[in-house]
Specification:
Length: 412
């Protein structure tokens, strides 16, 4: 059904990309016209069939997987019947249409999709189209789309494209292509990545980005991170991206290396999970932290005070399930209570429910005081948060006097 509606959306864009193209795309016998007829037939069959629950679940699963892989394109299937010339004609029509050039225009997503499709087929054709845009303001509309959609298999050609178009891609607009070249260089091991980083620095490409990086299985992260080139990188940016890749793709060795080289405070929290690995990875991290001695555990929780607020409740619950010792459970309860002081009362109390019996949670709240990280930005307890706290405490069997005492303590 969505493809049937899509045709009408396309036709409505500034007079219609389909209706405004020239050359082959304007012919009544074109693939466009045939696509409209075919899509109409398919949509009627789909409606007659009536999707079942499992059909919707399957479609949603496939869509989510594509989104996570960075390959999702809501219009992509439509272009299968289009020739390269027709796509180019549609791009030419769109580049003079305000609805296709403004970020929130009705045709913005269609233009991005057309560019992605043509890049898959012929990067040179996209470069020629981009160079042919007369108005510089129109070019700016695509300075993020092109690098992001550039095929990884053509990463080197993408870097050459940036070299010849430096003025068109200022600042961080080129980061996606830069990241793809770093990833491609990993096939030659740490030496390949070091050579690429040297080239990028010498040529003035910014490395202060945190795009996700993915290196081949078995990559020697330790060899890279102990090398002079990585050591010479500015803090943050690609340096952090590489450590995050190490954490996610080789967690056991990453934990060992971070503990050895950066100490407990360098272990981190939010960088350990990505994609679908969150709950499982946080449970793993809970076990690793519990295996440390009491002093190291206390140091870890002190260093991570500001990071807990960025962890989803379900991930905190996974971490908590692997915490066995009373001392570490107390450290985690204290960390969760701190979230109340930055307005995260709902997340704080939901996470506390995974940590011991109601009496232990209530005691943690009774003893609450803002930690050093939150003391300077302590938010007043909002009426909405206060109402939620009162309701939650009542469900933990606290009487009215105890609830009031806890609320008063949290307002200090």
């Amino acid at each position: 059904m969505w493809r049937y509606l899509l045709v009408f959306v396309l036709c409505a864009i500034g007079g219609g990309l389909l209706g405004r193209t020239s050359g082959p795309a304007a012919s009544g016998d074109s693939a466009h016209s045939q696509a409209e007829v075919d899509v109409g037939k398919v949509s009627r069959r789909e409606v007659a069939a009536k999707w079942r629950k499992e059909d919707f679940q399957r479609a949603a699963t496939e869509e989510n997987a594509a989104i996570k892989a960075g390959s999702y394109d809501r219009y992509g299937k439509l272009w299968a019947t289009w020739t390269d010339a027709e796509i180019r004609a549609a791009l030419d029509a769109g580049v003079v249409d305000p609805e296709c050039l403004t970020p929130n225009g009705s045709g913005a997503g269609v233009m991005d999709s057309l560019i992605r499709e043509l890049l898959k087929r012929d990067t040179d054709a996209v470069v020629a189209w981009f160079d042919g845009i007369a108005y510089q303001g129109a070019k700016k509309r695509f300075i993020y789309t092109l690098p992001y959609a550039w095929p990884e298999a053509r990463a080197a050609a993408g870097l050459d494209f940036l070299r010849s178009h430096r003025s068109d891609f200022p600042g961080g607009t080129s980061w996606a292509i830069v990241a793809k070249n770093i990833q491609a260089s990993a096939g030659q091991g740490p030496a390949g990545v070091e050579a690429m980083l040297k080239t990028l620095k010498e040529e003035g490409f910014g490395l202060d980005f945190q795009n996700e990086l993915h290196f081949p299985a078995g990559f020697d992260y330790r060899g890279l991170l102990e090398g002079e080139v990585w050591q010479g990188l500015d803090k943050g940016g690609v340096r952090d991206s590489m450590v995050r890749a190490f954490r996610q793709e080789d967690p056991e060795r990453a934990f060992e290396w971070l503990l050895e080289k950066q100490g407990v405070a360098g272990i981190g929290l939010t960088g350990w999970y990505g994609g679908d690995s969150g709950p499982e990875r946080m449970a793993w991290l809970g076990k690793k932290i519990e295996a440390l001695d009491a002093g190291q555990q206390a140091e870890f929780f002190k260093a991570m005070q500001g990071e807990w607020m960025r962890i989803p409740d379900a991930f905190v619950a996974s971490f908590a399930k692997e915490v066995r010792t009373p001392a570490m459970r107390e450290l985690l309860r204290t960390a969760m209570v701190q979230q109340i002081y930055v307005g995260n009362a709902r997340s704080s109390l939901n996470s506390l429910e995974a940590l011991g019996e109601p009496e232990e949670r209530l005691r943690a709240l009774e003893e609450a005081t803002p930690g050093e990280v939150f003391a300077g930005r302590h938010r007043p307890l909002s009426p909405e948060n206060e109402a939620f706290i009162r309701s939650k405490l009542a469900s933990w069997n606290a009487d009215e006097a105890r609830i009031q005492a806890i609320v008063d303590q949290l307002k200090k």
